[in-house]
């Protein structure tokens, strides 16, 4: 085997040494461990939307291990459930340190604060979905930050009264059985106090899903419903968000407003809503900053809750609410967008394409007709040219730049005794002796390189083997740009003419040498030719003297 030079070996050795630690670190790097504690259960819309937002954000990390524990504290509110949950979390994570803990909503944060000292004393924490957060909630805690969830309750009430100005009563579905419900109830009462005198504010406090249909069916037409909590189960706990909003909207003859985006699609009209997905996504982004090395204390709690006016178009139609009545920037779900609005750009593009295609087709048809007429005229012209060429009694031919025959008339074929197929694509070397062909080829190439005409005499052997005296007339053929495309030629047979010239020359010599008087006179008997013997007899010196002398014949 051929050995590498020493310099190359040293280079690869150094390269492997430099890269080895990096590769080893990359290969041995364990994923960063993140624990997400949610307040509710899998299948709860808010809970699931928060998880979705967290997952979307953490996808930006190269390597992360996300563990999710759903504490299910909406359906189970008793002390035994809380105690067993603490024991379960302690048993599972006491010997499994986490790089960061995420908590969603108030019950999960309250739970974490009770077990953090034992399980996660030095682990940074990020919270989200905490209703009406105040710094007092995390007083005494370190390495903790998060996102406030400020419900737009009063803004939604104002919006509801603006959209339905004939309203006289607002019925709020509220509860005081757990912390988040009590917080929402307290905020509702504070808003009602500030808006006192405008409408009557009532509470549907702690109603169960079995009581709800009868109560809702009896609501007056000039009232509105505001859902601030789920309906209760008779045995304790809450029914799901989906079942709650479906029950409320199915039995209430009036619009149901909400403060959460997950209620839309199951009967709620809308409101200034909070989004669990946005809360989770924002919390995930904060987690990434901390995992990348930023201290949690350096990140202030995000107090602005990004709530937006959002509505369900199908419920809007039910209550006769128009798009124009909604606040600017409203998000409308389930809207039956017209084909034109949804695919306007596509339709315009298709229309433009079809119009252009139609224009091109018409243009092609028009040009086709013109081309057809031009072709017909060209064919007629070509037919005339061919007919004219065939009637010419002298041989005519034309060649390409390569010197090969491209066409000829019948006289040319007869002259050489060849068939049309036997000459197309052939050269002068195929029909003429080599020495003669060389001379013709030289003349041809001169016309190809230097456009013009050539006239020269030559001898040609015919198909009968006769050697004929001919004169070649050749000219260059050019296109519209002046470039030479070939040449055209004609062959004038002057054999008989030359024979006559020779015969005339012999006769002239005989007359000139004769000793007798020989003269030629015109019809008026005036001589215009007298041979030398006659000139001597008459005393004339030359032909000029004959022309000047009037000789009258007897």
Tell me about this structure.
With 554 residues, the chain is of the alpha/beta class. It contains 18 helices and 19 strands. It has helices at residues 6-28, 45-58, 79-93, 105-119, 153-163, 179-194, 212-217, 241-251, 276-291, 313-318, 339-342, 344-391, 410-416, 420-423, 434-449, 495-513, 532-538, 543-548; strands at 32-38, 64-70, 100-104, 125-131, 144-149, 169-174, 200-205, 223-227, 256-258, 270-273, 308-312, 331-333, 396-400, 405-408, 453-461, 467-478, 484-493, 519-521, 527-530. It has a five-stranded parallel sheet with strand order 2-1-3-4-5, with helices on both faces. The chain has a five-stranded antiparallel sheet with strand order 14-13-17-16-15, sandwiched between helices. Strands 7-6-8-9 form a four-stranded parallel sheet, with helices on both faces. Helix 3 packs across helix 4 (105-119). The termini are far apart. The model is unreliable at 1-27 (pLDDT under 50).
Terminal Cα separation, in Å? 125 Å
The coarse silhouette is: rod-shaped
pLDDT below 50 for ≥5 consecutive residues: which ranges?
Answer: 1-27
Counting H and I runs of at least 4 residues, what is the number of helices? 18
Secondary-structure class: alpha/beta
Report mean pLDDT, rounded to a whole number. 85
Largest sheet: 5 strands, parallel
The Rg value, from CA coordinates, equals 56 Å
Share of β-strand residues? 15-25%
- The spatial strand order of the largest sheet comes to 2-1-3-4-5
What is the percent of helical residues? 40-55%
Number of strands: 19
